[in-house]
Specification:
322 residues, Quinone Oxidoreductase, Chain A, domain 1, Rossmann fold, 7-stranded mixed sheet, oxidoreductase activity, NAD(P)-bd_dom_sf
Amino acid sequence: MRAIVCETYGAIADLAWRDWQNPQPEGRQIVIAAEAIGVNYPDGLLVQGLYQARPELPFIPGMEAAGRVVAVGPDVSRHAVGDRVVVQLSHGAYAERVLADEKAAMPLPDSVSDEAACALVCAYGTSHHALKQRAKLASGETLLVLGAAGSTGIAAIEIGKIIGARVIAVASSEEKRALAKAKGADEAIGYDDLRGDIKRLTGGNGIDVAFDPVGGEAFEAVARSMAWNGRLLVIGFASGTIPKLAVNLALVKGFACVGVFWGAFTTKEPDVFAANMAELMGWAAASKVRPEISERAKLRDAADVLQRMHERKTLGKIVLIP
């Protein structure tokens, strides 16, 4: 088979498109023929050696893939050859054939496409966990979403509206703000006068829940704009800068800074993760959430796609097609 391979930690452009041994399932493992593979910001961090994990080299990056089961190990009981599934992994998805433990594979209803399923795993999974378990977002609260035109941002907007929040989207261009509004945001603003715009839109009351996958200077502006009993969710650092929190702000404003590490959550709380995914699949089947698939790129072009994502030149969810 062919796969995208990280042979040494370094530049995203160094990823190789080459032959790789076909996976052979053992025990409770399955192999799927990938029809769609999700691209996520952490994939680029992983191959640069900048993520929390460092797989043994060489390795195949990629956290999610959807397709049909083509082989099963002797102890598999949950899936059979021919089943449509989506798999969630730490790495290994950027390949024509994907090996996974059967517990990492979730059945796909006919109404959910392979491309949409990939978006539901990491992007929607992260936002859902952040808003439901970490922030405990409630109906009537105000939710601020930074990076609102990215895949996790769009997911946060849609999930926030399902919960019943008022959603203020923050994005860097008119095109991105228009997309955020189209996905359900009540307001869409830029980064130029973030504190002023938040004060204006909340009548000076501040933000109940802030969803921040961006970091950098925006984080400080948001920290100074939180409401009493607010929750500032730390999702990631797409700006490239890890901010520092002036902890006196948390003290005097009475808000909590809450970390969201979705990958660890899926392994530490597998039953909660499974329940979350079942809810997301149900929402997708009922068209309550509609992942924005902005691009379908060839698997061999994964390095270019990841590079553009890290340069913040992409919108919505991008999937790779083998």
